[in-house]
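Model the whole thing, not chain by chain.
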Amino acid sequence: MTHGAAPILELHDVHTQFPIHNAWGRRVGWLRAVDGVSLSVARGEILGVVGESGCGKTTLGKTIAGIHRAGAGKIRFEGNEIGDLTANEGRALRRNLQYCYQDPGASLDPHWKIGRALEEPLVIHTSMSRTERHARVREVLAAVGLPEGHLDLYPHEISGGQQRRIGLARILMLRPSLVVLDEPTSGLDVSVQATVLRLFLELRERFDLTYLFISHDLGVVRLVSQRIAVMYLGKVMECGQTAQVFASPVHPYTQSLLAAVPVVGGRRVTETFLLEGEPPNPGSLPTGCRFRTRCPRAEARCATEEPALRVLADGRQAACHFAEL
Amino acid sequence: MQAELLSVRDLSVSFATEGGVARVLDAVSLTLRAGEIMGLVGESGCGKTTLARSILGALPPNAQVRGTALSFAGQDLLTLDPRVVADRVRGRAITFVPQDPFSAFNPLFTVGDQVTELLRWKSPDRRPGEYFYPRARRRADRGRALAMLRAVHLADPPRLLTKYPHELSGGQRQRVMIAMALLPEPKLVIADEPTTALDVTIQAQILKLLRTLANEHGASVLFTTHDLGTAWEICDRVTVMYAGQTLETAPIEAFVRRPMVPYTRLLLESLPSRNAALQGIPGDVPSLVSPPSGCRFHPRCPQASDACRAEHPAVSEQSAGHYVRCHHPQLTAVEAAAV
């Protein structure tokens, strides 16, 4: 995709922290869910964010969408600073930035018919008349490939794949330019998953969307995204063109993550897989490099010095002392 | 060839619903050999969990079960006294690893309490009808539990037993579940999508563990999954289910390289790793209350003919160990080879 234009979204050293309280309600520390993330997303691009559960990818998405407040750092969206605005100011600026929840079935009100759920963002954000709103609802519903009869159904009456489409239709109501998709394919069968992914790509063409695609499924991210950022415990470990990262991952974490994905008809990962253990508790991070406790290449230097995210010769970034092409 | 451990013949399970009778399993036949890992693959709603639960004898009370035979290690579970099944089969000869390790534990008791409770009733040392828990057996069982927790690579088992479920991570909980499933020294472990809730890195570890331990203990595993990748990792043979019926049963290599049923081929083609064009399978899973006439897959099948619409295909053996329920199986095999 094109990278010439100014980026639609820029993050500079963003931190999001949650206080940890003990049993008496006293703050005993901070859980650094997002710990200094810098990224930029070009207009029209799909940036995939991958990592294990608990690595902060959802918190990052919610921070961008303004659901969590960034403790420090700068978030620029379409040229405006949106990191430290009040809820009201933020809402006006964020009309073009929408967040698509992980489980649309649970995020739809079970007592509301689909039609009402789709109309609500227009009622809140615009001054359209009722007939205009209904016309927009029907138009978007057709765009996501659902029949008009679905407007009178309740969320439990439609299948999981259709709920995803409704979730997507609801955020498209306001014609956003950037959409944060949080695990948009988890819980779907492979046969449905492919159809939903193709819908995402078609809608991007039609509505000029940019996606921040958060997923733990590396196979899916590889298919749709142009660039990919690999997160581990709140930090970006490797970031670059998807094809490059998948072909020759330089960070040991990316290497292990890719090695764990089963390839049907290929080598069996259970015979070769090395990475032991689980991510440490994000409330008490290891010193130095945060991956060193599981890293097969860890040395003494990794315990004392935290590697910075540096740019390699082919333009990709990696946070490892030993990352080389 | 090893002896048959489990043999399911023409098992049907139906539920009365508001819309009519839903036939969730329709004349399913399946065999499982001793020491083998069999994958049960299919989309959600195809009946794989119901099949797993009917083998376990743990269906909801409103289920209507009919079948020619459900024989396990020489006994017919359909006609066996339910009290004997509860005492000596379920949880003892056949154990279960649940899909969701988060809700499978009782949050109010420690892991140790729950492991002890299991061993009190299901320990291999327990004599039938033994209702008290002799101290000698209690001591032996504790040693057995600690050894098993070590075998599933959990650190510091004595301390782990004092913890509550919420203090463990998802991967740790699933390891405890596997340990608990293997402690009664079962002949068959039914694992119902044991890795769907886990990350790929943890999934690889858990699959490796399940495979090694099942081999060591000589247990067979019936492994249900919707993910063909995990089936490829761990299974010796695979059965594909669709709308309550088995469509194809084959050794894993033949299944992946020479699929014969169109549905299987489409399922393999919609995997992200080999699906650059993002082709899904058009249409939806049919209703189980009023399934389509003829072959149940024909409304979504690109190769459907008049025969498929009119006549229900029977199961036939196409090559050694490769069973297929399709009117045009060869057609598929030829095309798959050409790709």
